[in-house]
Amino acid sequence: xHLVLASYNIHRGVGLDRRRDLDRIAAVIxxxxxxxxGLQEVVRDAGPGHADQAAYLASRLxxxxxxxxxxxxxxxxxxxxxxxxxxxxxxxxxxxxxxRREPRAALRVDLGxxxxxLHVFNCHFGLALGERRRQLELLAAFIRDSRALAGPRVLMxxxxxxxxxxxxxxxxxxxxxxxxxxxxxxxxxxxxFTLDRIYWDVELEGESFHAHRSRLARVASDHLPVVVRLxxxxxxxxxxxxxxxxxxxxxx
Length: 252
Fold this sequence. Notes:
With about 250 residues, this protein is an alpha+beta fold. The protein has helices at about 20-30, 55-60, 130-145, 165-175, 215-220, and strands at about 1-10, 35-45, 65-75, 75-85, 90-95, 105-115, 115-125, 155-160, 195-200, 205-210, 225-230.
């Protein structure tokens, strides 16, 4: 079975031209045609029009929605979302917030895939180095607590690590599949930094991984989406010896 997954920081729907345009965001996602997409910086207000960005995008794309709220936003909420064409079997959230820094969180969505369960983690890390180190520890515990759930894992999100550091080193050990998973995604018009990542277990075979650099994607948000095409290895089943969450090293 082949699956296309993407991670996309939509910047509250505001593009580099400073226009808020959810139809443009939907068009970029449609260009990718993903089975699953993890979104960061999503607004769910109660106002008219496209104020509930998560619900609007899910409706436009014909996908199911799971939302993870991180904080209040005006008269509504703000956070991360997963849109999926696969059946949702369950979900859980983990608070990654640190002190007075902006609230952050991780979302796990359990999806049915060809008789198996695929666990997709979507997160958005903070801007400060010390903050990210602690968030890495919290994410490791969240993954460890999920290890009793059979099936491979995919981790995606905006990790806000501008240069190689503890997040890069730790997640490379945790998810040991050989394909290089670093692509420049920010700023979208001329990307210099690999802020947006997707990691997956060796039980899943990466066939391609790239930043989506269409003309529309270069202006719709300040981030480019990253996209992976995965294949569930033939004969792979529960108990495959991939590294589990507790192997993630402590923050440095």
